């Protein structure tokens, strides 16, 4: 699989596009928050780490090998600035399996922006990247992300008990997934 990714992606209220160096302050504003990092199994990111990430993900991606990743900055169409990001990572090129994720500034929460952006990325993954099965791994306490999975028509396929740990102790995860044929009209995949 080696797909050209057509971006920016526009939805009713949002634009999804590659990050640029000018987005550093906006990314740092949400990636540095402990409450945002809480369910990501890694510490909050400082400015230097955000700059490294932008340098890497801003170049776009090849969508060919295991580990290839597409990360898109999410902007509101009515206000300048980046409010969050959505990512999709190719976990198996052979089996066309990909993992989706989302991270948003809490100041823009509760208005459906994360759901709207994630739906657009789900459809891009199926229709442009040839993904067969899209999955998400969600901390079992991350109820906001559970609700996003459900709005993406993903089903809960697994409950992994204490399969990870961080400085708060053991963590458990849900695995959610959806197949292309379950949400994409025949012929559009
Ligand atoms: C996960 C995360 C993105 C969820 O944010 P969120 O604000 O709950 O998600 P949305 O932006 O989609 O908003 C959904 C809410 O807006 C409401 N809403 C309001 N207007 C809406 C609209 N026009 N369309 C859809 N939903 C709308 C929904 O009812 C929903 O509320 P509910 O969950 O109480 O039912 C956010 O908590 C986050 O970034 N967390 C940290 C990172 C993280 O944990 N990432 C996941 C790792 S796998």
Question: Quick recap of the structure?
Answer:
By secondary structure, the protein is an alpha+beta fold.
Write up this protein.
Pfam families: Acetyltransf_3. GO terms for molecular function: acyltransferase activity, transferring groups other than amino-acyl groups. InterPro entries: Acyl_CoA_acyltransferase, GNAT_dom, N-acetyltransferase. This is Acetyltransferase. Residues 14-181 form the N-acetyltransferase domain. This protein is an alpha+beta fold and 189 residues long. The chain has a domain at 9-135: Gcn5-related N-acetyltransferase (GNAT) (Aminopeptidase, 3-Layer(aba) Sandwich), CATH 3.40.630.30. 27% of the residues lie in helices and 33% in strands. The chain has helices at 24-31, 34-37, 47-57, 113-127, 143-151, 180-183; strands at 9-10, 14-17, 69-76, 82-92, 97-104, 133-139, 155-166, 169-179. Strands 1-2-3-4-5-6-8-7 form an 8-stranded mixed sheet, sandwiched between helices. α1 (24-31) crosses α3 (47-57). It starts with 8 loop residues before the first strand and ends in a 6-residue tail after the last helix. 30% of the residues are buried. Coenzyme A (COA) is lined by residues 36, 39-40, 101-104, 109-115, 136, 138, 142, 144-145, 147-148.
